Amino acid sequence: MQLRPSKDGEAVRLAGRDCMRETTGKGRFITLEGGEGAGKSTNLEYLRNALERAGIELLVTREPGGTLLGEKIRGLLLDPDNTAMSDDAEMLLMFAARAQHIHQLIMPALEQGTWVICDRFTDATYAYQGGGRGVDPRRIEVLEQWAQRGFQPDLTILFDLPVEIGLQRAGARGDLDRFEREQTAFFERVRNAYLDRAKHDPARFRTVDAGQDLIQVQQQLDTIIGELLMIAGCGD
After folding, report:
1. pTM as predicted
2. Vertex 82, ends 80 and 87: CA angle to 5°?
């Protein structure tokens, strides 16, 4: 099953055979992470198509966003005119959107046996607000425990590439949002924070070299997809 933002910003689904529910009865939560220009959107579609072809019931969403409330908060966070937003306000808005997202969309889907793929989740907060803005990770952890109560992704795919390449790609897309307008040093800190999290949680993270050509990136994804299909019981 697939989810896309509808006109009002909320996620919608497209049906597929629920292979995963037939084998285990529980959905899986997969998150995609990475800096600007890492190719998450393109490769999310590749991952979605592969899982959908295998018959897995799937829902795709994003952060901040995914719900009507979350999409409104997303607009505030990305609006380049909001230059006066404090680091604390930014982080609290992120977790407000996330709390609603988990409650309204993610947990109900998982409880029904649907797999959920999310473009960014809490690792992004540790990377952007923690690494980029310099917010103490202990403060982020307090909000994480409050909003998530121990809930974590089953698997996180980190698309990693040199900052200068990512910024070139992001700039080619057109107008830049509030985050994309940050300086190179900000994104270096974001990248380092992501890599540090992946280093300290190797069981959950799979790191993809996103600086390679698309075909090579997707070859790396094929290995990860193979793992996921074995978990789902949809492999050969």
Report:
1. 0.86
2. 110
- Does domain 2-228 match CATH 3.40.50.300? yes
**Three-class SS state of 118:** strand
Q: Where are the domains of the chain?
A: 2-228
Contact between residue 210 and residue 1 where contact means Cβ atoms under 8 Å apart: no
User: Which DSSP string do the residues of 7-57 spell out, in sequence order?
Assistant: TTS-EEEE----HHHHHTS---EEEEEESTTS-HHHHHHHHHHHHHHTT--
Tokens (6 digits) for 44: 């999310």
Q: How far apart are CA 36 and CA 182, in angstroms?
A: 11
Residue 12 structure tokens? 């919608």
Residue 235 pLDDT class (50, 70, 90 cuts): low
Residue 2: pLDDT band (50, 70, 90) is: very low
C-beta neighbour count of 214 within 10 angstroms: 12
